């Protein structure tokens, strides 16, 4: 298994679990852990109908918990103004079809992720050979067929804006997937990093359960382009974030976050790059996802 960049407990950014079932990390940002992945809520408590945004939608079976948290946090019947997907892996889109239909809401994503979100292509196979950890070994069993939200799907604008999130911009952060994006708010230097880097050893079931704060590269078993992943980490480190919420693990803040992120960028090949793997020498491309037909 790859190494990690240690981060002290003082870097933890999550507040105690609130009555709505989420951990706040800022007045208008909260996250909720669903099994192995985080779902993020953007908007102030009590924002009301169409006054908030959901970022990613967790694993299959997350719908009830997401809707319950949204109702408690934003108000009875409060629907989001949009769903933003950082990418389309199964653990980030588990209930997006159900929620888009229930809420009648646009789903925003990078155009390179659209084949995996409109039912037309399956992701390239995961890579269990990257080494170490039960989760990595089980990865061939994970779903990689596309979801189909084509009736709601919108392309994130080329100008970098995020239509339902004024003041934020999206940053292209490929490597873990071909169309992954991170979200960035310059005003307070808040970063939603997706899986460009994570704060737990996602390959290890034990680490996922314990959630000790430490910095890692992207989950190895689903990362299809390691050169792009390296560049993405460097680009996000250069932002000098004050706060980072990742797709897996606890959110981190402050100088300890920035120091660890720069260390990860500098030592990426030592810390994050697997010693072997199908995609280490031969990165996958968008067109490598196989055509998919529903039975």
UniProtKB/TrEMBL annotation:
Pfam families: Lactamase_B
Residue ranges, compositional bias (Basic and acidic residues): 11-24
Family matches, as InterPro entries: Metallo-B-lactamas (IPR001279), NDM-1-like (IPR050855), RibonucZ/Hydroxyglut_hydro (IPR036866)
Membrane-spanning intervals of the chain: none
Residue ranges constituting the Metallo-beta-lactamase domain according to the UniProt record: 36-248
Region called Disordered, residue ranges: 1-24
Molecular-function annotations in GO: hydrolase activity
UniProtKB keywords: Hydrolase
Xref: PANTHER family: METALLO-BETA-LACTAMASE DOMAIN-CONTAINING, METALLO-BETA-LACTAMASE DOMAIN-CONTAINING PROTEIN
Protein name (record): MBL fold metallo-hydrolase
